[in-house]
């Protein structure tokens, strides 16, 4: 599984990365988590950050940040 966290490095983007890592740990899923900070790359998926891409599909973008349970649900749906 490939997970991309989209964001330029703001506090919310950092929190989204932490949520993704925690969700993967708790679900016991093997995943490569990559932080994308390049705006050109981010804009291929969304104009709103932070974003969460799972296996090439945009699953979440913008504010407010999703809960840990929501992130787990989004990741689990693609596993």
What would you note in describing this structure?
The protein has 3 helices and 4 strands, in the order E-H-E-H-E-E-H. Helix 1 (11-27) packs across helix 3 (68-76). It has a 4-stranded mixed β-sheet. It has one domain (2-74): Glutaredoxin. The protein is globular. The protein has 79 residues and is of the alpha+beta class. The longest helix has 17 residues, at 11-27. Strand 1 (2-6), helix 1 and strand 2 (32-36) form a beta-alpha-beta unit.
Q: What is the approximate shape?
A: globular
Mean pLDDT: 95
What portion of the residues fall into strands of 2 or more residues? Answer: 15-25%
Q: Give the helix tally.
A: 3
What's the name of the CATH homologous superfamily? Answer: Glutaredoxin
Number of domains as seen in the coordinates: 1
Instruction: Return the string of H and E elements.
Output: EHEHEEH
Task: Briefly note the structural class of the backbone.
Answer: alpha+beta
Distance N to C terminus: 7 Å
Largest sheet: 4 strands, mixed
CATH architect. name: 3-Layer(aba) Sandwich
CATH class: Alpha Beta
Number of strands: 4
Helix content: 25-40%
CATH topology, which one?
Answer: Glutaredoxin
**Alpha-carbon Rg, integer:** 11 Å
Order of strands, main sheet, comes to: 2-1-3-4
**Uncertain regions: pLDDT < 50 for 5+ in a row?**
none
Quick recap:
This protein is an alpha+beta fold and 79 residues long.
């Amino acid at each position: 599984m490939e997970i991309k966290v989209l964001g330029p490095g703001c506090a919310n983007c950092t929190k989204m990365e932490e949520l993704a890592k925690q969700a993967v740990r708790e679900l016991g899923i093997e995943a490569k988590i990559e932080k994308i900070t390049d705006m050109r790359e981010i804009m291929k998926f969304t104009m709103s950050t932070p974003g969460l891409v799972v296996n090439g599909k945009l699953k979440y973008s913008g504010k407010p940040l999703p809960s840990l349970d929501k992130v787990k649900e989004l990741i689990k749906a693609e596993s």
